[in-house]
Every structure is written in structure tokens, then in C-alpha cells.
Amino acid sequence: MQFELTPEQKQLKETARRFAADEIIPVAAKYDEEQTFADDVVRKAWELGLMNFAVPEELGSPGLGALDTCLVLEELNYGCAGITNSVAANGLATHPLLIAGTEEQRTRYLGQLVNECSHSAYCITEPGAGSGVSRREAHARRQAAAELRRHQPDPAGRDSAKPPTRNLLKGDSRF
Known about the structure:
Layout: H1 7-34, H2 39-48, H3 66-79, H4 81-88, H5 90-100, H6 103-115, H7 145-150
Helix pairs in contact: 1-3, 3-4, 5-6
């Protein structure tokens, strides 16, 4: 078993460290004080290929693995964790598309991340849960179209029977 970084990994790590020293550290305090998004720094990271590592290689990303991604993010965090979160945040929305998106969705949205400097997001907030995913109460459920129509709110404001909620993630081996 080998515990040494490859020459490519060492170069990647050095590139990320130089980027942190040259591009992040000099402006990190300014962005913190102004409480603004470091768009120019994020754009430079994208131009250098330091973003969107979770996007599959066939869609144009560098095709880095988990260790390579950790090496890059560790070095960028040396500069500023807040700016690094801006650089790395696309990964949060990438994974749901990889797990459950259609081929068309993956090509369109993940391809966009590597073809232009853009940002992705997904929503996990609901009343009472904030951003704590484990405290969410909403669940997805499968229903036939006819059943969905049958349970639409009545235009006159009368109550309609609610279908039972079934958590689709329960028992799914992908999660």
C-alpha cells in the first residue's frame, strides 16, 4: 500500500497553495469585513480548474477523486474557509444530480458548471429545521397522476383527504 502522493497530486496541492497565497489571502479580510461574495476570486479558481471536482470527467471536469479534492480544499482553506466554501459549494448541488438526476439534467446542469463560471444551489431549509437536514419534516412520495388530482385543494376551500406520506429514501441503498 502506497502512502505517498503522486507527482500529479503534489503539483495539484502546490497549485492550490499558491492560489491561496496569491489570490485568497490578500483579499480575505476585505471580503469578510464587507460581507460580500468573492466573485473575482471564485472566477479565478474556476479558470484555473480548482472547482467542480465532483462533476464527471466525461462532462469536462478534471476527473479528480476524493483524495485529490481534499488536497485542493485543504490548501484553499489555508487561505480562507469562507472563500473556499464559495469555491466548493457547487459540489453540494452536484451530488443530488449524480445520484438521482436524468442524463439530460446531468449534461445540462453539470456541463454548465465546467463550461462557464456559474454557481449551483439546492434548498434544504424548511420552517423549524433551518439548514439542519436531519430535522426536516417534508418527505417525497410516489403518487399516480389521478391520485394527485384527487387530492388537490378544493377551490371552494373544503378539506380533502390527504394521502399517506411515504419516505422514498427509506430502504434505498444509494443513501
